[in-house]
């Protein structure tokens, strides 16, 4: 897909002096609930009211959405507040119903993005539409799969496109519900700078106490907007209760978030510098996380050596590692001196961990 500037035109049409904010409940539960939340959001930075009508669940038996009835509630909210409305579509039948109820923004969920066949059916159903279509990243960290979905929609003559970063599933337990893997949306942004990029901090976080930090990181990385799950009584929400915030919290969050505005050459420079520094921060966090995992493995090796009464330092193994890392470092533009210093420090920390275990 070529870099097409018309992809950003729809975002400019909003004429906002702040990031685009899409907010509303994870799920439409009742007409009263949808309308109450809409009216609490209508005079805030939120331009778009979101609500899940069909809820894909990992396992059956959970609340799976109210279905098409909820589209009428969204329509009524739109009439009463003037907000645009948005919902997730997972197949061509959802698309048909959403279009019939004049939904302004349709987004494609992470579970749907993984299937090129379903994406193609949705693209065919939307062919030529002037609706805004947003594509969430696939569940797994696969940039080509994400871009493939965008390309299928673009080929179907859908020009009002954007992407939503909602994090990626992982078997490992982290502080996030879905690991952000910021380097993936950064790469997407570098390749297609005119493709609007929106962050879904609710699904990345899985809990409301870190939503602000995720939003700030996204804005520091020049994301164009936020999709935040918002409920007037989040603790009693029918789905994803832990990751929703109140409209009052959203209003305060938008006040507290720092959004850089470029007004001259110096500001442009500062913006670019801060964005690059945030990218470094993201990578640094990943480095610390990886080093922590490496030391846990070293601990396991220490336990095994203690059990078998084996010496900590294995010189042959250490020289093999060092040789391989020097070669790999050279391929990535890293000097031999740097690789030696870094891996000697890592090796010493690994020895320290194993000594503690053996001497305990």
The string of secondary-structure elements, in order, is HEHEHEHEHHEHEHEHHEHHHH
Mean pLDDT equals 91
Number of domains: 2
What is the molecular shape? elongated
Over all CA atoms, what is the radius of gyration? 24 Å
Helix/strand-derived category reads alpha/beta
Q: What's the name of the CATH homologous superfamily of the largest domain? A: Aldolase class I
State which percent range the strand residues make up.
5-15%
The total count of helices amounts to 14
Briefly, what CATH class of the largest domain? Alpha Beta
CATH fold-type name of the largest domain: TIM Barrel
> Which parts are unreliable, with pLDDT below 50 for 5 consecutive residues or more?
none
Strand order of the largest sheet: 1-2-3-4-5-6-7-8
In the CATH hierarchy, what is the architecture of the largest domain at level 2?
Answer: Alpha-Beta Barrel
**How widely separated are the two ends?**
59 Å
Main sheet?
8 strands, parallel, barrel
Give the fraction of residues assigned to helices: 40-55%
Question: Using DSSP, what is the number of strands?
Answer: 8
Keywords: Transferase
Protein name: chorismate mutase
InterPro entries: Aldolase_TIM (IPR013785), Chorismate_II_sf (IPR036263), Class-I_DAHP_synthase (IPR052899), CM_dom_sf (IPR036979), CM_II_prokaryot (IPR002701), DAHP1/KDSA (IPR006218)
Domain Chorismate mutase: 267-358
């Amino acid at each position: 897909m070529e870099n097409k500037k018309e992809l950003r035109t729809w975002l400019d049409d909003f004429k906002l002096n702040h990031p685009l904010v899409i907010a509303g409940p994870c799920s439409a539960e009742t007409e009263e609930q949808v309308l109450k939340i809409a009216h609490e959001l209508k005079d805030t930075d939120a331009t778009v009211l979101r609500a899940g009508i069909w809820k894909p669940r990992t396992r059956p038996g959970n609340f799976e959405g109210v279905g098409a009835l909820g589209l009428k509630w969204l329509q009524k909210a739109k009439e009463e507040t003037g907000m645009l409305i948005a919902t997730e579509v997972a197949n061509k039948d959802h698309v048909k119903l959403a279009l019939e109820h004049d939904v302004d923004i349709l987004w494609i969920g992470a579970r749907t993005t993984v299937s090129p066949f379903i994406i193609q059916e949705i693209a065919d159903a939307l062919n030529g539409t002037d609706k805004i279509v947003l594509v969430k990243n696939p569940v797994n960290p696969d940039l080509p799969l994400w871009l493939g979905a965008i390309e299928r929609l673009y080929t179907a003559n859908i020009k009002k496109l954007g992407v939503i970063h909602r994090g990626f599933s992982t078997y490992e337990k982290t502080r996030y519900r879905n690991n952000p893997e910021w380097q993936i949306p950064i790469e997407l942004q570098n390749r297609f700078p005119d493709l609007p990029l929106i962050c879904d901090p609710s699904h990345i976080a899985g809990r409301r106490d870190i939503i602000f930090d995720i939003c700030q990181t996204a804005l520091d990385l020049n994301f164009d907007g936020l999709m935040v799950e918002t409920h007037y009584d989040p603790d009693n929400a029918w789905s994803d209760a832990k990751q929703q915030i109140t409209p009052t919290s959203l209003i305060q969050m938008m006040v507290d978030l720092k959004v850089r505005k470029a007004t001259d050459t110096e500001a442009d420079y500062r913006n670019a510098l801060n964005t690059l520094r945030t990218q470094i921060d993201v990578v640094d966090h990943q480095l610390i996380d990886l080093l922590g995992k490496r030391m846990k493995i070293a601990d396991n090796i220490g336990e095994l050596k203690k059990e078998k009464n084996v010496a900590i330092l294995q010189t042959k193994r250490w020289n093999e590692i060092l040789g391989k890392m020097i070669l790999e470092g050279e391929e990535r533009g890293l000097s031999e001196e740097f690789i030696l210093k870094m891996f000697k420090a890592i090796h010493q920390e690994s020895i320290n961990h194993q000594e503690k275990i053996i001497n305990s």
